[in-house]
Amino acid sequence: MHLLSVFPALQVKNYRIFWITQWIALIGFWLQLTAQQWLVYTMTDSALLLGLLSACQFAPSLLFTLFTGLWIDKHNKRKILMGTQLFYLIQASLLGLLLWTGHETYLWILFFAFFVGTIDSFDMPARMAFMPELVGKKALHSAISLNSANFNITRMVGPLLAAFLLKYLSYSTIFFMNALSLVPIIIAYSRMDVNSVIEETEKRHPILEIREGLKQAKNNPVIYKNLIAAAIVSGLILNLGTYGPLFADRVLHEGIDGFGSILFAAGAGSMVSGLLAGASTRHLSNTMIFRAAVLCGVLLMAVSYVHYFIPALFLFALLGFFIIAFIVNCNTVIQMASPKEFLGRIMGLYTFVFLGSAPFGSLLVSFIIEQVGTSLGLLLVGALAIGLLVIFARPADEMHSLS
To answer: Considering all CA atoms of the chain, what is the largest pairwise distance in Å, rounded to the nearest integer?
Structure first.
């Protein structure tokens, strides 16, 4: 009972069921993702083809989320989420079957990565739009924070467990395990006594309705400035998979073990940040969210000056802490500022900018590092992020405080 009093969202029975089953599903997700990445690397021995795998998974977010957001606004979000979990289960089962029968090829794995990305383009905005219905606005900040803590705890555990299991189990078994991990959350969604209230509105052309959602975001400074900040942080700072291996190898000279330690440190900081935020029903002000984003850029610049292992891990832990502080509060204020009838569209737009900026940011970060070196490159990337945030994402109250 003490745990329920600490975390407001866990006082909601439906959310407790969701949170527990999400743990199982996320462990399965990281098992499959880690196994799939290692499978492609062993099949191709190519960093480029491994990068193409990630691009295929992100591409549907760029292609579909603006349209899926509108569709989500018109349908029952709980039922949509039941459907996405079922499609995740089908995808994992088919991929496992492909490997079990010995018919796997690189192109087939690319196809399934695109398939997963397509499901993501429905699942992510629907899940975010469903949270206010599940817990109410009072506990929304706590729910988003606990979701983030879940994700980062399983991000630390899942890859390590996958590396251990792959010594004894086949790739197909790992994929089948992921499929099984989705069964509890499908059952949980089916038993939740939460149903979206779909308001009847005049039927209009989808493009016009999407344009209305974009107009809502544009005309609300809280929404559009936080969307811009999310794109900047996601594209330039959140790309640990781009600059982390280079920093671990070229600067720290610790190789793959060093990269693993960097990911663990960032994950640990993220987990602490998510749990602390989860114990609160209040979100940060717009000014504090902006300053958290700027601090992420400052910490990345600080990392560029470090050449020793332990201090670097400390800075990456701090970076993980403030990245999650920014993301959780940014997500919360956008949802709180969004009219209910536009929430699916605005969450689709959030998914579009947050995931869609990642591949472009990754290319820019890698280009800068290759041109000027790893340490100077990170210094420039951090400075670029701060400059863009100040120019495009600074809230009105922050402008007044600096004038």
So the answer is: 67
pLDDT digits (tens, 9 = 90+) for 159-183: 778 878 888 889 999 999 999 999 9
Length of the chain as a residue count: 403
Query: Alpha-carbon distance 320 to 127, whole Å?
Result: 23
What CATH number has the domain bearing residue 128? 1.20.1250.20
pLDDT averaged over every residue in the chain: 86
Query: 330 near 218, Cβ under 8 Å?
Result: no
CB 141 within 8 A of CB 133: no
The answer on 244 and 154 residing in a single domain is no
DSSP state of 340: G
Q: CB-based contacts of 252: which residues, under 8 Å, 6+ apart? A: 258, 307, 308, 309, 312
The pair of structure tokens assigned to 249 is 């190898």
* Helical spans, DSSP H, in 192-285: 206-219, 221-232, 240-246, 255-278
d(CA 169, CA 162): 10
- DSSP-derived letter for residue 102 is T
Whether residue 303 contacts residue 316, with contact meaning beta carbons closer than 8 Å, is answered with yes
Structural domain span for residue 317: 205-403
Please name which of 197, 173, 240, 189 lies closest in space to residue 341, comparing C-alpha atoms.
197
Q: Which residue has the tokens 């945030």?
A: 389
Give the Cα separation of 353 and 116 in Å (integer): 18
Residue 282 structure tokens: 């209040």
Residue 1 has pLDDT above 50, yes or no: no
With CA atoms as reference, report the closest residue to 338 among 228, 212, 231: 212
